[in-house]
Amino acid sequence: MITTVIFDIGMVLADFHWRRYIASFGWRADVNERVAKATVQGPYWNEIDRGVMGWQEIIESCIGLAPDLEGEIRLFYEQIENIITEFPYSAQWIRELKEAGYRVYLLSNYGEVLFGRCQEKFSFLNEADGGVISYTVKRIKPDPEIYRILLERYQIQPEEAVFIDDVEENIRAAKEFGMHGIVFQSRRQAQEELLKLGVRRPAPDSIIFDLDGTLWDSTSAAAVIWQQVVDEEFPDITDRVTADRLRGLYGLPLEEIAVRLFEHSPRERALAAMRVCVRKQCPYLAEHGAVLMEGVREGLAALKERYRLFIVSNCQGGYIESFLAGEKLSGIFEDFECPGRTGMLKAENIRLIMRRNGLKRPVYVGDTAGDLEASDAAGVPFVFAAYGFGSAREYDNRIESFRELETLF
Q: What CATH number should be reported for the domain holding residue 360?
């Protein structure tokens, strides 16, 4: 039985994007390559993590490998904290494991200066129960001693622990101590491996829904209104509005829908038509409604008894209100958000809903690749509604019908 989960940091909980970092300085390609070979790909990079050589000694040693690039190398180290960025899911993942009853520790190779600068950036540090960072013990993975220190310091039973690291050599070293190991490729892949070991996530406390293709289909009603607007107010626009065309575009930001839908018109003309279309459709939808996806009305009533329910959609202000009024569902959802009200896109609005309502373990349910991307950017699990308008290459859960949500978790 697994009682303890141990995480590496770089490329597991945080993105070590050194190529992008070096490219950000705007140097020539050959300079980028030489700076990389003198720093992250050079003989002194591991010494940073080992914590034996001093910071200035490391810098001078790297300069010695490319003396003509002294300025570039010094600049590389001056802003070194920008070489790594926390993944959106990291703190949430650790919180969920803790809430499910697991102990969580960190075991990572880091130098003192870089780790010190990143501490304020890493929100997951406060979520973990502790850990060992290489510079503090003058050992780096896969040195067996750093594993021994972690196990003894926190009295971890190796056979009850699983270590997640992106380097296979480090996993092999952990297994030598009797620990389970997962070579990290992605959060979803690691989550599946954890599940095979019996490590389960707690049930969500809330569900945030996409709207179009997930809860309802307004394309037929909208197509009638939009084509009427085009015929009466924008006769120069030759593109026809149909339900099928709208269905293939829903989920995208409104500006992108406009330029794709009215593809043969100038951008500003397309946007102008879109603004009128979306303004005129809302009163109609609020009065007449549209088509709920199969099982939504009954399913929402059942889900409301167990979860807090919310909506985040890429739409204009008033559209979600039209859905709630037209389908008489105002009492089901606690809160909702959209770009038309905040000026922000889906990922930011998901995070806003989480903060505003104190959500700890939400999931996002949507039907498109854009919904997947927004969920990942917000750091929340994604449930793919396969019955909807679009597709998604990966997901945390998949449902073929809305009512599967009632027993999914």
A: 3.40.50.1000
- DSSP-derived letter for residue 251 is T
Which residues 6+ apart lie within 8 Å of 192 measured at CB?
A: none
Number of domains in the chain: 3
List the chain pLDDT tens, one digit each, 409 residues: 999 999 999 999 999 999 999 999 999 999 999 999 999 999 999 999 999 999 999 999 999 999 999 999 999 999 999 999 999 999 999 999 999 999 999 999 999 999 999 998 999 999 999 999 999 999 999 999 999 999 999 999 999 999 999 999 999 999 999 999 999 999 999 999 999 999 998 999 999 999 999 999 999 999 999 999 999 999 999 999 999 999 889 878 889 999 999 999 999 999 999 999 988 999 999 999 999 999 999 999 999 999 999 999 999 899 999 999 999 998 999 999 999 999 999 999 999 999 999 999 999 999 999 999 999 999 999 999 999 999 999 999 999 999 999 999 9
| Residues 6 and 58 reside in one and the same domain | yes
In degrees and rounded to multiples of 5, residue 375 shows phi and psi of -60, -45
- The amino acid sitting at 265 is S
Tell me the helix, strand and coil percentages in the chain, rounded to 5.
50, 15, 35
Identify each DSSP E strand in 303-360 by its residue range.
308-312, 335-337
* Separation CA 46–CA 99 (nearest Å): 35
Same domain, yes or no: 122 and 241: no
23 and 137 part of one domain: yes
261 and 363 share one domain: no
Helix (H, G, I), strand (E, B) or coil at 265: coil
Residues 267 and 320 in one domain: no
- Domain hosting 273: range is 219-288
Based on the domain organization, do 99 and 156 belong to the same domain?
Answer: yes
Beta strand residue intervals within 58-102, DSSP E: 84-86
Q: Which of 381, 5, 396, 382 is nearest to 182 (CA)?
A: 5
Token reading at 172: 């092999």
